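ok trying again, last paste got cut off:
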Amino acid sequence: MEDTILRRTWAEIDLDALAHNYHQARERIGSKVRYLGVVKADAYGHGAIQIARELEALGADYLAVSSLDEARELRRNGMDAPILILGHTPPEMTSQLIEHNLTQTVSAQAKAEAYSAAATACGGTLRIHIKVDTGMSRLGFLVRGGHFAGGVEAILRSCALPGLEAEGIYTHFAVSDDDEPEDERYTWEQFAIFTRVLEALEAKGQRFALRHCANSGALARYPEMYLDMVRPGIALYGVGDDAERLDLRPVMTLKSCVSTIKIFDPDTDVSYGRTFRTKEKTRVGVLPIGYADGLFRGLSNRIAVQTSQGPAPILGRICMDMTMVDLTGLTGVHVGDEVELFGTLQHVDHLAQVLGTIPYELTCAVSKRVPRRYLKGGRITEETLRLLL
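nice, full thing came through this time. structure:
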C-alpha cells in the first residue's frame, strides 16, 4: 500500500479539518439543535466509514445516506448512530430496515402504506421521516398551492398507519446557497410552506420529535430555519461557496507525483488530439493521474497543478491514466516530487468553476483506484484502497 501511494496518485483526508468544520457548525447552531452529518456517496468521496466513525466520535446526533446499501455498510463497520436513508428503499426490504435500526424517508402515502404492510407482516416497527416537497420538485408529499390540504391529510393518514413510527419531518431547499434576491425569496417561500404544514399537522395533533430543513446553504444564511436539526452536506467537507463565510477547511487534498520528465523541441505536439504544441524547448512532466482517477478531461489545457516551486500548467488533453504538465520554469521539480491537483493550495471550487459545475461532482468523482490516506495531528492514521486486491 505504501509503495502504491507514494508512486502514483492518492487523496489525503484531513480529519482535523473535518473536526474543525464540525465544531464551526456546532458553535453556530447552539446546544439545543441536533447535528446530522451527510455521508452519502461514500461521504462525497472522502470515505463513508472513516468519516462516519469520526463524526460519531465528535458527537454527531444523526447520519444520512442515500440507500440501504450505504446504511448497511456503516452498520457492518460498527456505526451505532441513527441513520436516515434519504432515498428510496423497496418495501420488500423493510425487514432489513428494521433489523439494522434504520430510519426511512417516506415521500408519499402509497409508500407509507407499502412500508406499513411490510412492517406489520414481519412484526416490527419502522422509524420514518416524512419528506415534504415545498419547491424542490423531486421527492416529497405535494403541498404547494392547491395540493396543501390534500397533502396534509395524506401525511396524517401515513403517520397513523400501523407498524410506522413517525419520528421526523423534513424538506429540502433548492437555492438556499444562492444570494440573489429572487433565490432568497424562493427559500423563504419554501420555509413558509413547510412551517404552514407543521402548523396544520400540529393543529390535528401530529407532532414530530425532529423537524429539519437546513442544509449547508441554510446553515450559512438562515438561523431561523435550524429548527430541531441541521443537515450539513458539502459544508462538512470544507468546500463550496460558503466555505469562507463559515471559516471551513477543505478535508480532501488530491495529490499525484512526477513519474517522468522529458525535454521536447519546439513544434512538438503533446497528447491526444494534438491540442497543444510547444513553442520552445519545453520540460514536460508526466503525472500518473487521469480522468479514470477523477481528473476531469474538461480541465485539459485549462488549469495548472501546484508544485513546491509553483504552478505547472497542464499541457494537452488529460488521458485516462496520465497527464502532462509544463515544468520548463520549475527546475527544482524532479521525478518523484508531489503535486497537488486540488486541496489547500488550489481549492476544488476553482476546478469546479472552470468546468462550470459544483465541487461535489469533483470530490465524488475521485475513483476507487485512488487510495485514501487519513491524517490526524499530522500523522497517518489509516490508508485504504477500495480496489478488491
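cool. The chain is about 30% helix and 25% strand. The first helix runs from residue 2 to 7.
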